Every structure is written in structure tokens, then in C-alpha cells.
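Please check this record.
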Amino acid sequence: MKQRLRILAWHVHGSWLDAFVQGEHEYLLPTLPKGGPWGAGRLGRDWPNTREVPVSALADTDVDVVVLQRPEELDLCAEWLRRTPGRDLPAIYVEHNTPRGDVPDTRHPLADRQDIWLVHVTHFNDLMWDSGTSPTTVIEHGIVDPGELYTGELSRAAVVINEPVRRWRVTGTDLLPRFAEGAELDVFGMGVGELNRALHIGEHRLFAIGDMPGRRLHEAMARRRVYLHPVRWTSLGLSLIEAMHLGMPVVAVASTEAVRAVPPEAGVVSTDLDELTSALRALTGDMAMARQMGKHAREFALSHYGLGRFLRRWDDLLHHVAR
């Protein structure tokens, strides 16, 4: 029987952490009185295997492995735990993002470190980051299955983008008017209130719905006929994998990891905007085709991005590093 580990991690990406803490270990989340990015704790999430630990108590807390997600956490560990990650404390660094700057020559902050494992969440990220001689591996996303909720009753496309005006070309926000020629769009996410004004597009073609809690978001997405993924340059969005789990067909820009995540029978992935717009038009107009593609999308997502596979991969690495 494998040892139950005490794992320290920060609440950085809620959807990723939601899957990560479903394992059989004890997950320690730092808290500060003011909360914030370095001491957010659970942020109200119902995670039974987690324990919030005040920063003031971390130095006296037993930790088997620390899972880092931001460069600043290296110094925080040394200060708060009085232990140096990789030397005094087994450590793993999870890189959630695609490289920025001088791609493909962007050096990772942990490049050439031999004492900390570097985990990429997609094969694309592993390919594009210059990690030097650091030990690296890929553990692809996994999510808690929301269930096959797809009805597709609304002949519209669902889009999920956080802060689309600020992030603009990165998230493909500028492409939305073009896609709206193929289907009416419903946009979910944080900071979408200024979207219509920024794009000079009417609500009859693009309706900014806003942010929703998980279950309500999944139910709302599943009522739309197709999921649109317009992103140019971010790591593989968990909302795309969630849409596939829901049983939604996908139309996606063929960048970063999308070409690996969406097989041909589950949707249309292309760099040709005309092809993508035509696919939106075809899928919103053909319920039978949309439903069939959605079935394939769910099957693929369950086998490639299921929670069980994700947790097994993490369990193996955590025990390897802890030893």
C-alpha cells in the first residue's frame, strides 16, 4: 500500500487544483489573514482531503512534497517553511502556461535545475519551453466528470474566455466577430461586460453572459449546440475539456494543444477561419451531426482526460519524488 503523502500547494488555478486534490493524499493549502494570491486557502471550495494551514504554522508542519506553480513560491518556501525546495524538501514545479517572449527560445525559470521535477500540462508546452537539462515530464489535464449534460437545444455556440478584452489576441477575442457570421455566440467568463463595445458587435450576434459557478456553467454550456475554442496562445483550456466531457462538439483554432485534444470525429480544428466559420454554421444547423460529434468528443475526453488517469500519473510522480 502506498504512503499517504502530505502535499503543500497553493490555490493558483482552481479548476486544475479541483482535480489534483481528488487524490488520496492530504493537501495543505497556505492561508494568510488577508487571503490574496499567496494565502487563499480553499477559497470556499468543498475539498475534503485538503487542510488549510496558516502561513505562521508552516515551519512546524510536516510536508512530504511541495508542488510549486509560480517562481515566487521558491522563495516563499524558503522563508515560510525554512526549507529550500529541491534541497531540504522534495519539490515538483507545474508549468501551466505556454512560453511568452522569444518563442521558441524562451528559457523556463527552472531550466537546468536538477533538483526539482518540471511538469508540463501539455505536450505542446513541453515542446516549446526551453527547459535545458531539467528533468521534465508531461501530465495532461484531468477533470472531475460533470456528466453527459448535452442537450444542444439552443442553436448557438458557447465560448468561455476570462478577461477577453485585456487578453485580446492571445484568447482570439478579435476573431469573435468573424465567427459570429457562422453562429450566434454566447460568451461566458470573467470580465466579458465590455466585449460588445470593444468588438463593435451587437448582442443579437454575440451575447456576453458573464461568469457562473461550475455546475451552472456546465448546464448552460450544454444547452448550446456547439463549443467554440478561438484561443491562439494559451495552454489547453480546461473549459474545452469540460465541454467535451459534457458531450459537446467542438470547433477550435488549430493552435497550441488543440490539434491533439480534439480528434476529427469530435469536431473541426483548423487555422482556416472560413473553414471554422462554415463548421459553426453546419453544426448549429444540424442537430443530428452535432449530437454524434459530441458523443465522440465525450468518449475521447473520458479516455484521454479522465480523472483516474490524471491521478494515477500524479500519484506515481509524487511517490517517486518523495522517495
